[in-house]
Design goal:
Layout: H1 7-11, H2 15-29, H3 34-37, E1 38-41, H4 44-51, E2 56-61, E3 74-79, E4 82-85, H5 91-104, H6 114-124, H7 134-143
Parallel strand pairs: 1-2
Antiparallel strand pairs: 2-3, 3-4
Length: 145
């Protein structure tokens, strides 16, 4: 889903769906795979098997035939293959909670999402924003114009 050019974002009245699309678009802009951040499943058994292999991420279990913006069965945060938080309302809230967990526990960002989390921490939250990677510095410059 790339910002408002994709169908779910363009047609969604739900602000949470739009926020989720923006977060995924940020991953895409930074040349990172949004599927590494948010993994969606239709079955709880599939999610349990895949969660065991997840180092850091968000798991979303959808109702079968669910449309974008509809309530999901479960949104949870996975760390080292263990579900540490569950029954979260939506993906944007889960991303905020995941960022908080990573920051407070002083964990390293996953290599495949390091620019995404660096942007959220250093630009969005303005925490330790003195030293930026080149990719994040370019995005900061573009946003400040």
């Amino acid at each position: 889903c790339f910002l408002f050019f994709c169908d779910p974002c363009a047609q969604a009245d739900n602000i949470q769906v739009k926020r989720e699309c923006i977060l995924k678009a940020l991953c895409v802009y930074l040349n990172e795979d949004p599927e590494k951040l948010v993994k969606e499943y239709l079955d709880t058994e599939d999610s349990k098997i895949a969660s065991a292999e997840t180092v850091i991420g968000i798991s979303v279990i959808l109702h079968e035939g669910a449309e974008p913006g509809e309530n999901v069965e479960n949104v949870s945060i996975i760390l080292e293959g263990i579900e540490v938080m569950s029954e979260l309302d939506n993906v944007p809230f889960a991303v905020a909670m995941l960022l908080g967990i990573i920051y407070t526990m002083n964990l390293n960002y996953p290599q495949e999402l390091k620019y995404f989390f660096e942007f959220l921490q250093k630009i969005f939250l303005e925490l330790d924003g003195i030293k930026l990677s080149h990719k994040v510095q370019v995005l900061k410059t573009l946003l400040s114009r």
